[in-house]
Amino acid sequence: MSSIDEITSPVPYVRGNVEPILHEVVHALDRLLKEQEPTIIDLASLPFAPGELETLESYLGSGELTAELEALGPSQIRETAYPGVWWLDHRNTDGEVVGRYLEITRIPEILMSQDADITAGRARLGENLEGFESGRSNGADA
Amino acid sequence: MKYTPSLGDILQARGVSRRGFLKYCAATTSLLALPPTMVPRIANALEQARRPSVIWLSFQECTGCTESLTRSSSPTLEGLIFDSISLDYHHTLQAASGEAAEAARHAAMEENMGNYLVLVDGSIPLGNPGFSTIAGISNYDMLMETVKGAAAVVAIGSCASFGGIPGADPNPTGAVSVKDLITDKPVINVPGCPPIPMVITAVLSQYLTFGQLPELDHLGRPVAFYGQTIHDRCYRRPFYEQGLFAETFDDEGARKGWCLFRLGCKGPITYNACATMKWNGGTSFPIEAGHPCLGCSEPGFWDKGGFYNPVSTTDIGSGVALAGAAAAGVAIGAAAAAMSRRRQKKTIQEG
Fold first, then answer.
1. Which CATH superfamily is domain B52-226 in?
2. Chain B within 8 Å of A115 (Cβ-Cβ)?
3. A123: how many CB neighbours lie within 10 A of its CB?
4. Which residues of chain B are within 8 Å of residue A4 when distances are taken between CB atoms?
5. Which ipTM value was assigned to this complex?
6. Nearest-Cα residue of chain B relative to residue A73
7. Which of A4-18, B200-214, B294-308 has the lowest mean pLDDT?
């Protein structure tokens, strides 16, 4: 292992952005509890030093619930070890990150079934049921 | 009346779910450097947006700007921009060639008179029209003819925005920028060598979403992406403040990731979004990889005294000059950061 494999610094990178974000999360949790207002933090807009984003992710950890979404590429929506604090990773079909957020909310909106999709699904199920019923009536005499 | 599908229609026809559309809108909102709370508004606007006709003209360029935007061969969220626009003319991407290609350009102009966008990459040579021609037409003639009915012109990359490498000393072709020639149409400069692909996509998305051009700085660059210097948002800024600099590319300071100011970093005088948006899907950017910023989104960056000479190098003594420049840089950087925050706030309020 060469000396450039390990980069050390007299200024700990962890004091750059991680601590302020954690304080922002605390305030957001207070707002959620008192005012029922969700908060979204766009992590892509923050100038993280190497390793800081991983430090933040590791600090928040994982909770009971993880959801995998496949829409225009994979996304992972994970409740952290702190209930109400969700980590969202959106990737494109090449696996590149296109969005990364912290959502302080009861449930991220993207997890909820959307009206347009429910309507389209209902129409599809209705068509499939017609085929199901006609298939049963054709074979009913057998 | 010709039916023009909206972006919502197109995505639905492609089988993209509402969840997928929301994901696309979230990524677009992030691209536009807008607060995530604007996602519903972006979703509403994009759903209704009609695809504008876009004519892309390539002049004295290396095709790096097109490469930057079209890196992936499979559909990506960034690639969805091509569903949001009707790209009616593009040398590298279009299937047509020769007379058919030029006919497509004229047809797009006539059918969308006054409403189409013209995107330009590459500088325009004025020295001799023969230096760069397409179908026997000089770059200058093609540009002036095509922009006549355009709603706006977007100069993609530093060559189109400022002249770029063709315009560098001694500028053998007499290369000029789009803004040097077009004075009666709105021109947006999206400089960089190349520009960050997401910035190109975001500028087009902003036009689609808000139906208007973004707020521009004194060089015609969108303030949302060029409102702060690399230095303002650089993660190595604490080292600059403490006077900890790498002196060579392999010394202790380089290994410890210290500031690259003394190695010629142009971060303090370069406005771009590299330090936050980064490159390759947010992987890294030159400074993080250990190389000083070249300043590629600024006019004349090729002729600014060398990539590895410090910004502040003068004849009066490098020590004094560096200290003075550092102090001035901190003050200017803080003021610029405050100004750009006010501008961004204004964009959000007006949006």
1. NADH:ubiquinone oxidoreductase-like, 20kDa subunit (3.40.50.700)
2. yes
3. 10
4. 255
5. 0.76
6. B76
7. A4-18
